[in-house]
Amino acid sequence: MSIFKDFAKGLWKENPVFVMILGMCPTLAVTTNAINGFSMASATMFVLVSSSLVVSVLKRLIPNQVRIAVYTVIIATFVTVADYFLKAKFPPISKALGPYVPLIVVNCIILGRAEAFASKNSVIRSLADAVGMGLGFMLALVILGSVRELFASGAVFGRTIIPHWHSWVVMILPAGAFISLGILVGIFNLIRLKAKNEKRKVKN
Amino acid sequence: MKNAIRMILVLVVVGLISGGALVSVYNYASPLIEKNKEKELKDALNKVLPEVVDYKEIEANRLYEGRGKRNRLVGYAFIAEGNGYQGKIKIIAGIDPGLKELKGIEVLESSETPGLGAEITKEPFKSQFRGLSVVPDVTFTKGAVSEKNEIQAITGATISTRSVVKILNKEIARIREVLGR
C-alpha cells in the first residue's frame, strides 16, 4: 500500500508545483501553450525517473560528502541524453522548448527528489515516487499551459475551443504566467482545505 | 585518507561512465541532427525562393544563387546571423536578382522566448517580408505599416524584431558589395 502512497502523493498531496512550489522556472516559462507544457513535463519526467532510479541503486556506494556532485553528474547526463534525443527525433519540439531542455539540469524537483527520497529509499519506492512527482509536474504544466493557451488564443492543444476569441496577449507574456499560476495555486489550496475540513467533520 | 580516495574514485568512475554513455548517445544522435538540419536548409531554400529549380553555391553556407526554368536567374538566397534577445538568430532569406525586394524569410535557428520572440519563426511575422522593399533599408514600426520597406514589430518582442531587421539590412549591404551592385 505504501508504494501506491509514494506514487499518489506527487499528484495531489505534495504536488511539486501547486503545493511545494518547486520547479517554477520551466513552469512559468514554457507553458505558453498546452503542447509545450506537455513536452517539457515529459522530458523532465524522463530525467526525474532515470536519475531517481540510478541514485537509489547507487545510494550505498556514494560517499556522503560528494553525493550532491555525483547526483548532479547523473542528472546532467540524463538531461543531455534527453536534449540529444529531442533534437534528433523531434526537432520541432526541441525548437519550441529551446534553452529550457538543457535547463532541466537545474530543476530543483529532480535534485530535491534524489536528495530527499531516492537516496534514502528502496529502488521500487523511489521509482513510484519519481513517476508520481513527474506526473504531478505534468498535470500542473498541462493545466497551466491549457489555461494560458485558451485565454491567449481560444484553443487548447492547438484545437479551437472558443471560436472568434479576442486574444488576451497578456496570457502569453510572463505576467500571464504569474497571474494564472497564482489563481491555480489558490484554487488548488481551496479544494485541499475544503477536503481537509470535511475529513475533520466526519471524524467529529 | 581512505575516505578521500573513495570519494575521488567514485567521482572519477561516475564521470567516466557518464562520459562514455554520452559519447554513444552523441554518436547515435549527431548524424540524425545533421540530417534534420540539412533537410531544414533545403526546405527553407525552397520556401524563400519558390520558383527555384537548382542552386549554385556562391559562398558556402552564406550565399546561394537560385536558377529557375531554362537556367534563368530568379534570385539569391542568403544565410545571415546575429544576436537576438537571448541568443543567436540565424535567418535564411530570398531576394530578387536586382537586390531590391525580398522574396521571403525563414528562421533557421533561434532561442527567443517561447510565445514572444519565438513568434519571429511563425507565419504572420514572416509573411510580412514577402515582397518587402529593401531600398532604402528595412525598418519596423509598432503601429500600422505605412511604408513599402516597413514591417510591424511583434507585441512584447521589439528586441527580437529589431534583431531580425538589423541582420537583414547588414547582410543585404554585404551582398551588394560581394555581387558588385
Helices and strands in order:
The complex is a heterodimer of chains A (204) and B (181).
Chain A: H1 2-9, H2 24-29, H3 34-58, H4 67-89, H5 91-97, H6 108-118, H7 123-153, E1 155-156, E2 159-160, H8 174-203
Antiparallel strand pairs in A: 1-2
Chain B: H1 2-48, E1 54-59, E2 63-67, E3 73-83, E4 88-95, E5 102-109, H2 123-126, E6 139-141, E7 150-152, H3 158-178
Parallel strand pairs in B: 6-7
Antiparallel strand pairs in B: 1-2, 2-3, 3-4, 4-5
Walkthrough of the structure:
The complex is a heterodimer of chains A (204) and B (181). With 204 residues, chain A is mainly alpha-helical. Chain A has one domain (2-147). Chain A is 69% helix and 2% strand. Chain A has a two-stranded antiparallel sheet. In chain A, α3 (34-58) packs parallel to α6 and α3 (34-58) packs antiparallel against α7 (123-153). The longest helix of chain A has 31 residues, at 123-153. Chain B has helices at 2-48, 123-126, 158-178; strands at residues 54-59, 63-67, 73-83, 88-95, 102-109, 139-141, 150-152. Chain B has one domain. Chain B has a 5-stranded antiparallel sheet with strand order 1-2-3-4-5, with helices on both faces. Chains A and B meet through α4 and α5 of A and α1 of B.
